[in-house]
What does this fold into?
Amino acid sequence: MWHDRAVTHTDVGRSVQSAVYRAGVYGRRPVVPVAPGALEAAARRRMTARGWGYIGGGAGAERTMAANVAAFARHPIMPRQMVDVAERSLATTLLGRELPAPLLLAPIGALELAVRGGPAHAEPPVARAARDLGVPVVISSQASTPMEATAAALGDSPRWFQLYWSKDDDVAASFVERAEAAGAEAIVVTLDTHVLGWRPRDLDLGYLPFVRGEGIAQYTSDPAFRRLVASRPAPAGGGERPTPSAVRALLTMRRHGATRADVETFLDVFSRSSLTWADLAWLRERTHLPILVKGVQHPDDARRALDAGADGVVVSNHGGRQVDNAVASLDTLPAVAAAVRAARPDAPVLFDSGVRTGADVFVALALGADAVLLGRPWVYGLALAGQDGVRAVVQHVLAELDLTMALAGVRSVGEIGPEQLAPAAAN
It folds into this structure.
């Protein structure tokens, strides 16, 4: 496991690169495509139409998705020469935990849609890949397997928990309590999905995984949620004969250990649009863990989050899945980071949305992020090669980050700043 060595210094870039070229002598190619476009195309061919629509799609005309990716090209890296970079370090410290690299696996819901074989092939292999690399996983509220199973697969590897704040406070509190018991080191409250965005790919298929019992394992395994289901009135009998499609949906629910009552209860309590900054005090009283808020795009929201008790922010637009024609997350990062540093210099600023490569990670760090959450690329790796695919994608991103640092004249992630970007991009 390279991360044991990487805490002090690393040659992960050349190690991964050399391993690929040496294997090529014997006709072996990488486990998954290295080029981002080829990786995405291969995953799309592997996934079902429903799986690709949900995981690969975005809001509206998907202009925000495109803007997220395109934004990186507006911040070119300015390499420097004749710097001793023989020894480099990707290591960083986040919320008091030393990590091998400034990278976390972003929370992705309904992962079973990316794989064949059901929930057992969703989060557990991701957890094992992250454990191999020492990279933290942010466990999703909409996971296909209960958080306890993911925690078991992670072993001693770091994990955070992403909270969708339910309309029922008992469910939200229970999720947080379970996350603490499962060894979570932070709670990440997602702010930007209190209602689902307008997603044409899913709408054209008439498909939402949760309606079929997919991606709701955290709920069906939760005692507070089970009490809500038990208190629900029994459905009236009779009615129209179910269509073949409805029968298939019911069978899917049963395969996931869910019932119609589970699904209807979930739809009733999924999220709250009435939340305000004042509600963070309620959460602060119920956990000793650091709280980060995810979905921040405006510096004023960052300041208000810190004033309300948050310990850090994640600059994100949900990968373009919520608001079409929204500002690219990278374009908001410098102002949000500056606002956070002015208000509380020790509060971490994380970033996601549009990250595809190690060079992208470098640019995000240069613009003020302390660490980056990687999303869709590792899901594509999961779809193509399970645990090995996730591990390969993350290794490729970190290898490119390491080589980019070397070629830019940077020895550690702590040295990466706006001065490593072209002057126009640094302003």
Remarks:
- Residues 376-408 form the longest helix (33 residues).
- Strands lie at 92-94, 97-99, 103-105, 137-139, 159-163, 187-190, 291-296, 312-315, 349-351, 371-374.
